[in-house]
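Researcher: Please translate sequence to structure tokens.
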Amino acid sequence: MPDPLTVASGISAAGALISAWQLRARALRAEEKIGHLEAELAAERHAASHDPLTGLPNRRAFHRLAATLLTDAAGQPLIAVVLDLDDFKQINDRYGHAAGDQVLICVAQRLAAFAGDNLVARLGGDEFAGLLATPTVDRRWIDHATRRLCDSLAAPIALGSMSLRVTASVGLAPVTGHTQLAEALCRADEAMYRAKSVTATRPRRALLETARLAEC
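Model: Translation complete:
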């Protein structure tokens, strides 16, 4: 006949194991719930600071991130970039908003590729901005960078079996101090509008080509 004390001890040990297992299961469920909540919070924060179409930082995030970069720049030359697509309304009117959205996505990808690890953002509509670390801020470098960026953005964009070519007006201006971002963006904006006024005298229509010439 089993010893009552031994039976009681075994029951107690089994009960302790069950309790420990239940506690562990509850802890795992709580950790999983916390993980889901943290993921939801991160997604909400990302949505609040990023453009939903292109995935780039939005206007508010751009100014916040740029302020941090300017504080940490440690004297490294920085260039503010502002660009605006030429006759973008024609694209939406002629080819539809889905085509316009695809153009904006492609422009965002090309701007990000041009900027590399630097900050770029969609400010709204067809307006984009960036803050680039550069080896120098002399006029020759700025002119060369402007031409390279314009050429990159002007490459044909594939839309199904067709290809759309758009151009952009670009303005660059050096940031002269860690508190001078707003002034640099204003000067870049002025340079962009000067470029737009010059190209306004030449045909700037979006060209629809029958061949699939290029892809983002």
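Researcher: Any highlights?
Model: Residues 203-216 have pLDDT under 50 and may be disordered.
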